[in-house]
Amino acid sequence: MVTENEFLAEYKLSDYERPSVTADVAAFMIRSGEKTSYRKDPEHKLSLLLIRRGGHPYKGMWALPGGFMQSDETVEECALREIMEETSVRPVSIMPVGIFSQPGRDPRGWIISSAYVSIISEESVKQVACDDASDAQWFNVSFEEEEDGIFRLSLSYEDIVLNAVLAEKSASFGRTMFDIVDSGSLAFDHAAIIAAALMALRSAAKSFETVFDFLPDKFTLSALQKVQETIMNVSMLPANFRRMVSKYVEETGEYLRGDGHRPAMLFRRRKTPVK
């Protein structure tokens, strides 16, 4: 009988065709607009980090930060390494979105992508394009269902507007996946990855799993509500929001002062939600 060591000594991995593995990251940030009045909070925008590809394939097109996994790292470590190499941004958190393995998705060959959604705080942003990225920018995000199962993804930065159309393919285990109808000049299948990442972010935001990562440790309820509304693309009455969020936050005893407003109580996230 062949022992395991003997089997492994004879085993040749090269006898089997193998895919390459990449990690791609949909990194989101909520950006505050310019404050025009002390009586009104500035407008908030959900933004997505994209790079303009500096090399083939899809040279000059916009894509998610990402790259190939190395033999001495996990795919999660690859995702973090790639986004830091290309943008000098360290995500606050990272969450798996899904595996994208459609045959032909990459013209270079058999390449599968492990996709992630990450959250980056506005204060930590420092964009430095390097590696194969010739440019890196934050695009404002709009994602709306135009008709039953058909969604439009719009990404805008200054005079650049990317519009993609996607069809909902499946929804299970809290994840929604999409087929691309029109890629909107986004590289590879990144339109589908972005759409799936947005749905995952919204799903997590419903139970306040992700909203705190967009904010500093201490925050006002007004700021927290703005984050929730921006992610979910909804408006809520302050009283209703406070009732929803009360079991997830606790008072710090400190106040935010200035800007012509009454002092606002600062809160922090509870370690364990109240049941």
UniProtKB/TrEMBL annotation:
Under the heading PROSITE patterns, the entry gives: NUDIX
Name the Gene3D superfamilies on file: Nucleoside Triphosphate Pyrophosphohydrolase, Winged helix-like DNA-binding domain superfamily/Winged helix DNA-binding domain
The reply on keyword Lyase is no
Give the keywords, sorted: Hydrolase
Question: InterPro entries annotated for this entry?
Answer: Nudix_hydrolase, NUDIX_hydrolase-like_dom_sf, NUDIX_hydrolase_dom, WH-like_DNA-bd_sf, WH_DNA-bd_sf, WHD_NrtR
Q: State the superkingdom.
A: Bacteria
The protein's matches in SUPFAM superfamilies, at most eight in alphabetical order, are given as: Nudix, Winged helix' DNA-binding domain
Q: Which residues form the Nudix hydrolase domain?
A: 20-162
Molecular-function GO terms, alphabetical: hydrolase activity
Question: So what family is this one in?
Answer: Belongs to the Nudix hydrolase family.
Q: What is this protein called?
A: Nudix hydrolase domain-containing protein
Q: Which organism is it from?
A: Ruminococcus flavefaciens 007c
